[in-house]
Design a protein that fits this description.
By secondary structure, the protein is mostly helical. The chain has one domain. Helix content is about 75%, strand content about 5%. The chain has nine helices and two strands, in the order H-H-H-H-H-H-E-E-H-H-H. Strands 1-2 form a two-stranded antiparallel sheet. The relative contact order is 0.14.
């Protein structure tokens, strides 16, 4: 237990530092490529989870092509991406994650949907493509690097608060048929830490304080989405009978295990920010 926690903390610290440095200092093309590399690693693990090695290769090639096509079509490589079409994509992603809540609640009956290979891979695209688009769109906005760091920070807070509060005080399972280790107490701890992070951000950026109620809605939606993304990946792993999506990251498992909350949280943050804060008079 102690060794596992030590590995988790060390890996988390290294990843956190790399994430902050990359988001804050990489040029747009570098940020896009770094994000694409993470998506491709997660795509490989998704392919292995749902179909096996041979299908994983085909899925990675398809995801790589879609990343390139999305980057060109949505003008993600330029200074002003096509925000209207990006928001339509993000609305589809948010609708998918809303449906994912019902899917998680109805597991294992919902596991029947995994019988179709085409559906499994289509869902993988919905899981992996929108967060990459959302991250690049946020980074392109004025002050966007700070926005992206806030979104990622909320996810980290939900994960860290949920892990430590859940292990210390967790009693009531949140989704026992999907992830027995997650508890309502852990959820409360994660939400609480995320709200503290939001309070720190509002204190650091005075211009945001006037819209604190809107920011609160953005943060809560993002935090809940992070939990849904985590539970969704846990459901996929349980359906396949595996504990982790991979072994690349000591103490964390695979890349998909590390970014599962971000897959839902980044599109949600971007969508709610655009509709509640950015569009506010």
């Amino acid at each position: 237990m102690v060794e596992g926690l030590r590995a988790r903390l060390v890996t988390g610290a290294v990843l956190g530092c790399a994430l902050v440095v990359g988001v804050w200092w990489l040029p747009p093309a570098g940020l896009a490529l770094a994000g694409a590399a993470a998506v491709m690693a997660a795509a490989w693990e998704w392919g292995l989870l749902v179909a096996g090695r041979r299908a994983a290769i085909a899925f990675c090639l398809a995801v790589g092509a879609l990343l390139g096509a999305a980057g060109v079509e949505l003008e993600l490589w330029g200074a002003a991406p096509d925000g209207e079409r990006i928001l339509r994509l993000l609305s589809v992603a948010c609708a998918f994650w809303a449906l994912a809540v019902l899917w998680v609640q109805s597991y294992p009956a919902s596991g029947l949907l995994w019988r179709g290979g085409a559906l499994r891979f289509a869902l993988g695209v919905l899981v992996l493509l929108p967060p990459w688009v959302a991250a690049l769109w946020l980074a392109s906005l004025p002050g966007g690097r700070g926005l992206l760091l806030l979104a990622l920070g909320l996810v980290v807070c939900v994960d860290v608060g949920g892990y430590f509060i859940g292990h210390r005080w967790g009693r009531r399972p949140l989704a026992p048929r999907v992830s027995p280790g997650k508890t309502w107490e852990g959820l409360a701890g994660g939400l609480g830490l995320a709200l503290l992070a939001l309070a720190a951000a509002l204190a650091a950026v005075p211009a945001w304080r006037a819209a604190w109620g809107r920011w609160l809605a953005v943060a809560l939606a993002t935090a809940f989405a992070a939990v849904v993304g985590d539970l969704f990946e846990s459901m996929v792993k349980r359906q396949r009978g595996v504990k982790d999506s991979g072994r690349l990251l000591p103490g964390h498992g695979g890349v998909l295990d590390r970014v599962d909350g971000m897959t839902a949280a980044l599109p949600t943050f971007a969508f709610f920010y655009a509709n509640l804060v950015l569009s506010a008079p």
